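WARN retry 2 of 3 for item q-0093 after timeout on previous attempt; input resubmitted unchanged.
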Amino acid sequence: MVKSLPTIATSNAGRIEHRLEICKLIRHGVLIAPLLMRNAYADDETHIFDLPAQPLSTTLNNLAESTHTQLLYADSTVKGLTAAPVKGRYTARQALAIALGESGLDYKVVDNSVITVAGRPEAESVTTLKAMTVVGKMEDDPNDPYNKDYTVTNSSTATKTDTPIMETPVSIEVVTQEVLKNQQAFRIEDAVKNVSGVQKKAFGGSDNFIIRGFDSGRLLFRNGTRIPLLNLDFANIQQIEVLKGPASILFGRIEPGGMVNAVTKRPQEDAYYSLEQRFGSYDLYRTEANATGAITDDKSLLYRVDLSYLDTNSFRDNLFDERIFVAPSLTWKPTESTEFNLSYEYLDEDRPFDSGHPAIDKNLGQLPINRQFDQPGLFDNYQNHLVDLNWSHKFNDQWQLRNGVTAMFLDEDWQETYSSALLTDNRSLVRRSWFGNRNRDLQTVHLDLNGKFDTFGIKHNILVGGDYFSEHIEQSVTDVSLDTIDIFNPVFPNLDLNQLRNAPRNVNFLSENSWYGIYFQDQITIWDKLHILGGGRYDITTSGTGFSANSLDEANASFSDIEINKFNPRVGILYQPWQWLSVYGNYIESIGSPNNGRTRSGTPFAPESAEQYEAGFKTELFDGRLTSTVAFFHLTKTNVLTPDPNDPQFSIAIGETRSQGIEVDISGQITDELNLIGTYAWTDTKITQDNRGDQGNRLPFAPLHSGSLWLKYDPQQAFLRGFSFGAGVFAADKRYGDNANSFSDAAYARVDVMAAYKFNIGPTRLTTQVNINNVTDTEYFTLRQRSQNIPAEPLTVLGSIRLEY
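OK item q-0093 returned
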């Protein structure tokens, strides 16, 4: 955002005149003059500001105090006027120009030692400097590191175009950087707890979520690119976006509940540096550093470096996590119309596998939450390399071409034991070994052409594109039964670890998945109120597997695949009768993940498919500061595999499941001092067709009722300025752990609180913060299966110190 500064008087006559004006004001006693420590005014020194819209006199006093400036003004001049918000890094003069805004007042500099504020004269015969410009980020810029917003107005996840959320006929929620900071989130689960209808599923250390009742399958997206099994670190995450409902139209095969998209931080033109140290319960230490700015004077070449180090133990016995993460990135703008972005991520992590607790009969919670049954001294290693190169070119204001290539290489080295079953005595837990490795390589390419034009008064926003995805997986593991352990009195035997490491690999698995997708989309706007979204995607997909109990060579020899060609449409309509209200509906068909099973004849299965009907409304209240979405949906998934009744080791594709419900998401500012996030989901799931006796049961992991409420208070009173306080409750109804509904975890409500204090040390901002999660020490579980369910963290304290410059 660029704003023009008022001209500045510089002639000798003008200086004398201003000195006389000051003396006159002082004699009359109407001058309020915060004359502070420093005589000279430093025009080029920047400061961090966080001033809301408030009485102009209050803002002027705050500016004078924080910048040590001699700022003079008459009380009668500013009486009854309100200052514009000043948020971000500026010089004192830039901040003053923004604060004065549309007040009708001007400022003048006298001998570079005093600044006066007065009304703009009708005419002024003085010599003036050339008009200056202020380049700064407004408070609604999501990339501004000082942005305090709980909402964003635009998102590209739903449409691959930068579209206002109020004009997008689907449900999408964004967890902003300010929310992540306030809650000290450094895991995906910490972020999505603020979104309705999303629940975490236990799966070792991988991120796996249930959205609208359906398992997302450990699939995450990074800047709109699908990255299965991606281990995210929040050092370079700007915000988390959750798109509800089928998303395969633009992103290929995906489970129909929705998708989680992590948006990374981008290099910035303005220099910014931060260093944060976190420390908490169970010997948690996390160090995070960020640096960004321009490399060249013309700011055509920008850089960014984000890195973190995590070292923590756990409330669970024998568990730890140690992680190193480094993410450099570059942006090059050779012209105003062309941009190249190159980023790299490296992650190296050691952590033991955690099987959690088995269900005893139909219940959990009958064992101490710290008790762990996997062999001590073992841990897995994950090494991940990711390279992302993308570029864009604007032919003009209407047409843009985008292209990108992403490659990821993930090596997993497993050394673990795991729980497989609890025997009928309800105390003997069967343990198995899992020693070996898996290598996963993937590449994805996309090419989009986006254009905007009018036809007979109808506005079009066209997207035409294609993508290619290829994934190759090789896995070779030793999986054998080890022993049983008494869950009420566990005694770990001495295992011959070398023998397990060197044992023959009896689980050799090969997988290949690839597709070519072509998609189109038209966002039509009629009368500036009616928005119609139409589009579709044609996929040519190939998926195949090979398996052997002897070797990878044999697995490769047994490999077979299947090709599926399918077209899926998407239609949405949104009517915006007033700026603050949108009413929308959509119909979407989608193609899901491949079915990893075979018929008795050895033929692989076609992937699952789904369709959704959705209707709802969105609002923007209090001048857009508070947003909400209310959605009603009906979602059906078909072609689900069930056991073959003639031979249970094979499958048949007759299963069908359904999810329907209501979701409410509210976020933003109620007042200048109070921020809010509120969610509620009623998710009614059912297995509608099945041959295992599960028909009529609820889908696992999804509660019927769930919701949250988070409030953050930023007091503006002088004696409390810089403090902030927050509190929230996160609750869920009973959740079943399998399709048979054979066990469950009870309903729970968890309370979190936070407090922080920010203050400036010269041009540097220092923030101290403490978060206490699960204040009530509520016991609940993240579910996976009968033998493996992870206890949630008990009362946990997390403190941090952050320096920003």
